Amino acid sequence: MKCKKIINELADYLDESLDPILRSSIEEHLGDCKDCRIVVDTTKQTIEIFCNSEPAPLPLTTRQRLHEALAKHLRHLRA
Amino acid sequence: MNSPKLDPVESHALPSQVVKADEPILVSAAKNGDISAFETLVGRYERKIFRLTQNITQNREDAEDAMQEAFLKAFQHLDEFQGNSRFYTWLVRIAVNQALMKLRKRRPNVVSLDEEIDTGEDMMPRDVEDWGPSPQQRYEQTELSEILGKVIGELESPFRVVFQLRDIEEMSTEETAEALGLSVPAVKSRLLRARLKLRQKLNQYFKQGGSREVQKNH
């Protein structure tokens, strides 16, 4: 298997949605190819870093404006 | 590293399908006009929704407006929420639409999500360098948030939006396709490019040593 094929199948490989035969040949290639192994590992880490990152607290003024707008409009909508 | 928070009994399910125990009660109360129940839901999700609208619009004022409009629309249309997904997933879809409208208004010639994208660029990664375990722990939380916000902001919007829904909001490929009016293959293709581009951009922050060229056996 060529490195280019690994990259093309990378998303499905990381999402564990590949059929077992293709998955097994990718893993065989990864055992021999350090560059592909690093690309797979660092792409996986990229997803995990974003997925696990906590959103920053809302800026105070943003939060104030949001809750003022909600207070104004929600009561109006309910009425 | 924090793991995604799943309800323990439903840890096999997609995060977008896991319902927090009190969510149906809050939604039901809000449907009956209980504003404080709705405000509890707002308080629970405001930070995530603002990150989403900020990531999509890349403009603070638009992000604030899109967030406000999303919450108001959600309240107005609560009767249409059937409970087939998490309330949050339903809210995300509303917020994405509001954010995309802002983005299209500001940059009408740049944003077209439904066009086929064939940049013709080589997807083979250029810099291959190990990051070591938990590279994000080398940064303070605030600094890491800034880095992530910066690199995702550098992505073109069609890639940015797909990555936001699929890998940050953890919606399924099918949910992402439906929310954006794209085909499943289009979502997969954009997601792959988005992931590789972000990996490349994060490489400058997380690599352990000097980068090197990939060996040409591809």
DSSP summary: helix tally of chain A: 5
The helicity of chain B comes to 55-70%
Strand portion of chain B, in percent?
under 5%
Described by its quaternary structure, the protein is heterodimer
Mean pLDDT of chain A: 90
N-to-C order of helices and strands of chain B: HHHHHHHH
Largest sheet descriptor of chain A: none
Choose one word for the global shape of chain B.
globular
Number of helices of chain B: 8
Largest sheet of chain B: none
Q: Write down the overall geometry of chain A.
A: elongated
Mean pLDDT of chain B: 83
- Strand-pairing-aware structural class of chain A: mainly alpha
What's the Cα radius of gyration of chain B?
Answer: 19 Å
Give the strand content of chain A. under 5%
Estimated radius of gyration of chain A: 23 Å
H/E element sequence of chain A: HHHHH
How much helix, percentage-wise, in residues of chain A? over 70%
Number of E-state strands of chain A: 0
Between the first and last Cα atoms of chain B, what is the distance in angstroms? Answer: 34 Å
Unreliable residue stretches of chain A = none
List keywords for this structure.
heterodimer, A: 79 residues, mainly alpha, B: 218 residues, 8 helices, 57% helix, disordered N terminus
